[in-house]
Amino acid sequence: xxxxHETEVLGASTSVLRVVEELRRYGxxxxxxxxxxxxxxxxxxxxxxxxxxxxxxxxxxxxxxxxPPGTVTRLRSTPAYLRAVHDALLSVRPHVVHANxxxxxxxxxxxxxxxxPVVLQSHELPEPGLKRDATVMVAARVADVxxxxxxxxxxxxxxxxxxxxxxxxxxxxxxxSQPPLLxxxxxxxxxxxxxWVKGTDVFLRAAARIRAEMPEIRFEHVGSGDLxxxxxxxxxxxxLLDDDLLRDGGxxxxxxxxxxxVLPRWSVLVSSSRSDGFPLATLExxxxxxxxVATAVGGVPEQIEHLVNGILVRPDDPExxxxxxxxxxxxxxxxxxxxxxxxxxxxxxxxTARQAEGLHRAYLTAxxxxxxxxxxxxxxxxxx
Amino acid sequence: xxxxxxxxxxxxxxSGDSLGRSVQAIRASAERTNALVEFVIVDNASTDGAVDxxxxxxTDVVVRNPINAGYxxxxxxxxxxxxxxxxxxxxxxxxxxxxxxxxLVDAARAAxxxxxxxxxxxxxxxNPQLVNSRGVTVDETGIPSEVDAGIEAAxxxxxxxxxxxxxxxxxxRAAALRAVGGxxxxxxxxxxxVDLAQRLQAAGYTSRFVPDAVVLHEGSASLAxxxxxxxxxxxxxxxxxxxxxxxxxxxxxxxxxxxxTGHATVSILAGGGFGPLTGRSDALRQHSYTRFxxxxxxxxxxxxxxxPYAARTxxxxxxxxxxxxxxxxxxx
Lengths: 384, 332
What we know:
heterodimer, A: alpha/beta, six-stranded parallel sheet, 13% strand, globular, B: 332 residues, ten-stranded mixed sheet, 12 strands
């Protein structure tokens, strides 16, 4: 049973939903817990058995707790919510519980309390600090197996994992049917929630620089707005979007859309994140044969080798992004070469089959460690 | 395309040549029937290459596990990927004769929807006159045992209705297995079949003995020569079975304690080391899970406390059967 922590269909949930069919080949039947109404619930209904759904009052920050209906109401609702999770576990009686991100820790605690095997997968690389360390320490006590979506995430988990095994399971992408043809129009795209972490401001600054030099290049951004945590970013972003260089079709903010609907018309994908575990957007672009210009943060360097199958730049460097995009615009041959190599690597190394194999191993390990005889499970503890 | 009538589920763990022989014999037996049969082989992290050495047919499904998470987990995986109406669970060391599949298929076709399990006549490979198992049963104090184990086949008295089948070899209706939630995975090995039989009984299903389906089976092929490991796992499974299923009356608990003490003493004296003691203490570690599983079953309406228990098997009778089996094995 997969415990989702968000109601949107974002990268973390998409990566697991995509691998459900592959997991069935190993005999796993996947059901899910969804924390309230939203696009994710609409998405899974009819496609996956729903173990349960309830509005999640639990937040991960002080600001989140203060959001409507307010801290007191949220605290009051929390026991009922956790009871609902417990009831869903009783109904489904899952063999393994997969808590999908560190944010699902409260639900994972309930599963652990029931004596069920728990796999906790971290898709994120939270900012270093006491909060992150404490969260990972608790996660290591609760989970039987921790899973990182990249070596970067796994290293972060291992620092506080103690004896809990940490597996690295790289996200995979489904095989896209056809590599893209070189489009007549040069459109640069970016995918990600509008936020400081995703570096939306850096993307807009880079776009403005490029438009100043090449006004015929257009930009598109896919992703919903989430500036509750980044209120300081509201005004700068509004000012950038109001800039003459980005108005009138120069920059189109498309909102939340499946990336595959826009990727075929893009010539280059830019990932300007300040932190990223192992982004799906870059993998999807690579799989579609679209060259990627990405910041070398988190697990991105595990996907992209500079000038072999993409371009890596330093974070917070709009100038570097703009100069590489301009070079790719001028050099279709380079674009073609990087795109082909990216597609080859994505189709061989970042597949849903390999992701399912990794999760299958993590599930069996958790099962053995939690429910297996002590004389057997000791040998699995360090098998990651 | 016709629907698969029978899925043969084999769990392999360093099974050696016996796996290939078993698959070949069952395939040959199945070819004598008009049933559409598929093979599902779950490789529990074998290192002997026996699964790779099989010549797969187009109807075969192979599931590979990178680690051995136990028989119960592998059997559950096999059942999940299988597409047959009936699932034939067979140990790789079971020797099947030509009429075997036909007898089971005929019985399956004649069985009503209330029949969940068809139980073959398992005899000892070393002495086919002696019954290895004609299914499993649970007595009124919650103690599980093999039906007619160690008894001369001619004198054995298994009737048409039995409590449940041993996963050493039995046919289970896939829909019934799914309806009761499949195998319980906390067992790792041993007694997952009795637990399943108890839940099937509680859900209103019945099991039938098929005397024409005869197979030969020695038992303990996987854990031969690993007596401590085996006695630990058996003791653990027995304790877990009691935690999950056994009646909670003082009389039953007292009788179980007496029988378990005798069982542990015999196992220790037979060279199992302190496995019977460590296994029981290991099972206590699962207290949270067994409490959760009981609550879950209660919520689902699978009230496990009212199946039609068999009459209590006496301690001396249990020990007598164990001694008979041990002598037969020693005489080989």
